[in-house]
Amino acid sequence: MENPDQTKSGDEEKHVTRKLGGLKTMPFVISNETFEKVASFGLLPNMILYLTNEYHMSIATGANVLFIWSAISNFMPILGAFLSDSFLGRFLVIALGTVTSLIGMSLLWLTAVFPQARPPHCDSPMTESCVKANSAQLAHLFGSFVLMSIGAGGIRPCSLAFGADQLYDPSNPKNQRVMQSFFNWYYASVGLAIMISITVIVYIQDKAGWVVGFGVPVGLMFISTVMFLLGSPLYIKLKPNKSLFTSFAQVTEAAWNNRDLVLPPMESGGAIWYFHKGSKLITPTEKLRFLNKACMIRSPEDIDTDGRALNPWNLCTVKQVEELKALIKVLPIWSSGIIIAVTISQHSFPVLQANSMDRHLIPGGLKIPAGSLGVFAMITLTIWVAAYDRIVVPLLSKFTKRSQGLSLKERMGFGLVISCVATAVAGLVESKRRAAAIRQGLADNPYGVVHMSAMWLVPQHCLIGLAEGFNAIGQIEFYYSQFPKSMASIGVALFTLGMAVGNLIGSLIVSILNKVTKTHGRVSWVSNSLNKGHYDYYYWLLTALSVINVFYYLLCIWAFGSTESKNKVEWDEGDGMEDELEADDHAKGKGSPIVFPH
């Protein structure tokens, strides 16, 4: 039975008892997140090799499977956040997510353990006509992917906030420093965990095979589950509250229900608008005026004696309306991040390219796993985040006369431009690799190793990491700057949604290219043989789409900026400098490593 002191609600009750929570819970919370990251992100880099070699999928099909898996994994945190905020609470969502991830990884491990779970072995699936996986085998494999995605949807949106719940203590004068230390340690552990997963776990898969390579993540996930559940008696477990998603739905329905009402002139005053006592938002803005009908008071009977709306699905506050407007307003700029999400999510093809190249650091020396080259993007991103805050901003502020150096719009724009350069470099390198393969007589040998160092792939990984450091982090900070603190989680949700849509677009591009370019007996650009296909053309297509997207982004920020000053909203925020500092801390990089998972 749950300890009644563990579950609190409301700002005053939230942390009444300090016997629960505190630093003693940190080993359980952080170890859960760390082991989950090492386990889950260690599976993705080499998965294209598992699908093509063991399940005999074509490269295009395997890439599509991974794009869709990543899309589901990015959609699920939004559902997890909604369930946590509205119904189940963070502890239960994390616990269910952890167990579900463990089951999913165990199912994937079983596909490697039991030969019956996959098609019969085939020596050369790229050149021979091998037996394909049957429906039951594919159901087993895809079921494991779905369960892992569902588990990630429970852990990722709630883990950071749940850890903060354990430490937040307004009565402690040093609480801000404690929270800052927690964020630093949390993000350091996440970044380290992902780097370990991309290097160590991938190396184990290359050297020890799939049974051990998938078994180690299962063991780590088991440790993660046990550690989190062991700390259960120590946790502060907050009750779920109303979700912003519910609020948005209420505004939408109320505006529709009141669609026959005639909007009064904006200068008519605030007498007809519904707002809570003490709110700064007493009159809605002119932008998206049709939503203003959601906060129009039709008659005094709409409000009860304590000033609350009798039916929140027919009457909403001005604040609720403006929150939805704020979300709608940033959607065009959000949509400009979809194409760069396609670029960031290029996991499959670079691994296959690296697998066909010389991966020795020095002749006869250490051979880098093909799936580990992505660590260079991670290293670049991490270095850039630190360097930008400590070195670049102070230098730029002298020229821009702005304390933050580049504006958030400029940072996002630079990220888009760098992503164009990244895909162009990828196209040039692939063109050089393909030419070298043909010159060396490997045109008909998809398994041949080209006498060309895989280090040629490092620049494109570094550029992708730099583009992500500019654009992705800039996106999240931009959303924070446009939303009230109560909508801070929506910023991360928008970013993950953009990644999900980007993955789906990536899958669509590969499918269309594969279908169109192999007509009339031609070889597909994304052929099973890298040396016969034209993956360089694929990268040039991404470059063209990225360049078009830069101009689309410029149009979006022009439209956004032309109305920004006229519709500036003064949000209801907590008073006191401490609140402002905490919000500022989040906006200046505290959320940056959230962009690591894809």
TrEMBL record:
Similarity field: Belongs to the major facilitator superfamily. Proton-dependent oligopeptide transporter (POT/PTR) (TC 2.A.17) family.
SUPFAM superfamilies: MFS general substrate transporter (SSF103473)
PANTHER family: OLIGOPEPTIDE TRANSPORTER-RELATED
Superkingdom of the source species: Eukaryota
GO terms under cellular component: membrane
Classification via InterPro entries: MFS_trans_sf (IPR036259), POT_fam (IPR000109)
Pfam families the UniProt entry points to: PTR2 (PF00854)
CDD domains listed in its UniProt record: MFS_NPF1_2
Keyword Iron attached: no
Subcellular location: Membrane
Membrane in keyword set: yes
GO MF entry, a single one: transmembrane transporter activity
Organism of origin: Gossypium australe
Topology of the protein relative to the lipid bilayer: Multi-pass membrane protein
Transmembrane segments: 87-110, 141-164, 185-204, 210-236, 368-391, 412-429, 488-513, 537-560
Keyword annotations from UniProtKB, A to Z: Membrane, Transmembrane, Transmembrane helix
The name this protein goes by in its record: Protein NRT1/PTR FAMILY 1.1-like
